[in-house]
Amino acid sequence: MESPLLLKRLFRVSVLLLILLIAAVFFGISIGSTGSGISETLTTLFSGPEATDPMRHTIIWQVRFPRVILAILVGAALSLGGLVFQALLRNPLAEPYILGISSGSGIGAIIGILAGLPRFPGVSATAFAGSMGTLLLLFVMSSGQTLLKKDTLLLSGVMVNAFCAALITFLMSITQDSRLHNILFWLMGDLSAADLSQVGIVAIALIPCFVLLFALSNSMNLLLMGRELAQTMGLNIKAATLTLLVATSFMVSLTVSFCGPVGFVGLVMPHVLRLAFGPDHRVLVPACIFGGGAYMVLCDLLARTLPDQGEMPAGVITAMIGVPLFILLLKRSG
Amino acid sequence: MKQIRYMLFLITFCTFLFFPGPSGARTVTDETGRSLTIPDDPRRIVSFAPSITEIIFALGRQDRLKGVSRFSDFPPEATQLPSVGSYIRLDIEKIVALKPDLCFATKDGNPKDVVTRLTAIGIPVYVVDPRNLEAVMETTLRMGDVLNAAPRADAIVHEMLSRIDRVRALIATAPSRPRVFFQIEISPIVSVGAQTFVNELIEMAGGINLAKGSAPYPRFSREQVLALAPDVLIITSMARGGRFDQVKKEWSQWPSIPAVRNHRVLMVDSNLFDRPSPRLVTALETLARSIHPELFEGEK
Fold first, then answer.
1. Beta strand B179-185 pairing with B125-128
2. pLDDT digits (tens, 9 = 90+) for A23-36
3. Less packed terminus of chain B by CB within 10 Å, N or C?
């Protein structure tokens, strides 16, 4: 199975994207709202705290660094989420948002904000509960045999999504005070609340999922070939589907609960990477982790630095870049 | 038990080892009950809300103010100071870059995680939480204490109290209690209910707040406002740029409202009313004049 050719390709792609990711991280911690110098960052990075301005040190390591790491994790998780859902549903439009998982998470988060809970762990926990509740609802709606038919799951998702969107609007319409701002900012998707210990928690939860998805990458290849063929190749379709769904939902809802629904990363990154490196999921899973991470870091960097009257939510940037890019890709591939 | 105590001691010891406080430091408790260590004489202050900026200027400590939140526009000099983001969306990086030795935040408005993160970085944040006019005076006194401007703070509070007493004395002679509808938002129509500064001010200014209820910022339909038949309709300048005339015109279509019939649709500066700063007394006076113009006839 593991041909030397595949390993070589995997290595090449990973190294290429890893270099991109490292470059993105470097820019991410070098540039910020208080101006910067790349040389200044280099001295701070390589000469230890005593040789540099402690304020610079704090800004780079305690303000920018956690945020950049969170961006990598979020970008990787959302890209992988899109990749898995596109394979599972064999639908290029699929991504976790289409299935209503992020909206469910949104309801949870808003309830948390309305209850006056702190952003972490309170709001994160209610958001996670919300998305898991949506997933459960999806399973109930499309239970048994029909779970594997892509249209049922997709349509159930669209309906769940519409219902959740209405509920979110309702909750916002009955909110009258400053909590409305909190809800709005959360809904726009925002990475600014990262602190290193929270990022650590996200990493500990996400990295096993990344490994699991990599282990299942060949199953995704088989699933894409169609059910009959996959079955003859010895794949337990139901088990594979369920594992992929649960792991991905867990991943996505965790990231959404931390930084709100950052859209279009899951739609755009898998397509871009597929165009660049081909359809083999054994290559695409690591490519999504490194490439998606780098993309999100750069989007967040733009969100932080573009407006001069304070920063804007990263979700705005990902949508503004993502949508035109996606349309371009559709045109070219069609 | 002994072990826990030992651990606690160790943790405290390590904390002091890594974060040595400045030589002249003192421990204070802020208005949310958090205790924090601040310099004896804070020199680099950052304000996270326009109201706090106003208080710091009033205390005469503006020379120590190194950064303010966006929309800190009173006094006008405040706009010259570096901005650290809007009060709901503060830019932590900018705050850290200003090297503050003390920040002031409000509990109602500033995100809690910003306070937590700055504290973790080692920047003390004093959180104020004034809920009514009396509490604003208390906050002013506390901030005066923290900023070593206690005499100035005393003078501010003294002046506030005497102006409040003057309004109270005048209002006590008022023959009636007009029914007031205070509109802070145009579309939808939003008013102010109980537990707000404006509600307190309306009552102190001798009016009846028609929107007084459990909701702090209740919404109204036009129909409901017609049914309430306010004697005075006060609109804040929240929506700037000549929209007041438009709103006034819209109301003028309903002469069944006593306020419209008697030309008592008025506009007030929203910054006076939604910032818990010493200027709330000015808001009180403005409101008293609007509700009881007859009592102020003798003056200019």
1. unpaired
2. 999 999 888 877 66
3. C
* Percent of chain A topping pLDDT 70: 89
Residue B1's pLDDT band (boundaries 50, 70, 90)?
A: very low
B216 touches chain A (CB under 8 A): yes
| Cα gap A257→A186, rounded to integer Å | 9
Residue A313: CATH number of its domain: 1.10.3470.10
Chain A residue nearest residue B217, CA to CA: A176
pLDDT in tens, A111-120: 888 887 776 6
B82 touching A (Cβ < 8 Å): no
Which range marks the domain in which residue A256 is found? 4-333
Number of domains comprising chain A: 1
ipTM score of complex: 0.77
Q: How many domains does chain B have?
A: 2
Look up residue A63 and give its two tokens. 């303000």
Residues A81, A288: contact at Cβ < 8 Å? Answer: no
Same domain, B30 and B112: yes
Interchain CB distance below 8 Å, A176 and B109: no
CA atoms of B197 and B182, how far apart (whole Å): 12
Q: Which residues of A touch B94 (CB under 8 A)?
A: 33-34
Q: How far is A181 from chain B (nearest CA, A)?
A: 7
Alpha helices in chain B (DSSP H): 2-18, 50-58, 92-97, 112-121, 133-146, 150-172, 197-204, 222-228, 243-252, 258-261, 270-273, 280-291
Q: Do B149 and B35 lie in a common domain?
A: yes
Cβ-contact B43, B62 below 8 angstroms:
no
A281: left (phi over 0), alpha (psi -120 to 50) or beta: alpha
Question: Which residues in B lie closer than 8 A to residue A178 (C-beta atoms)?
Answer: 88, 108-109
Tell me the pLDDT tens digit for each residue of A213-233: 999 999 999 888 877 888 888
Domain that holds residue B281: 175-293
Contact A88, A241 (CB under 8 A): yes
For residue range B31-77, list pLDDT tens digits in order: 999 999 999 999 999 999 999 999 999 999 999 999 999 889 989 99
Mark whether B74 and B120 lie in a shared domain.
yes
CATH code of B39's domain: 3.40.50.1980
H-type alpha helices, B147-242: 150-172, 197-204, 222-228
Asked, for residue B124, whether it belongs to a domain, the answer is yes
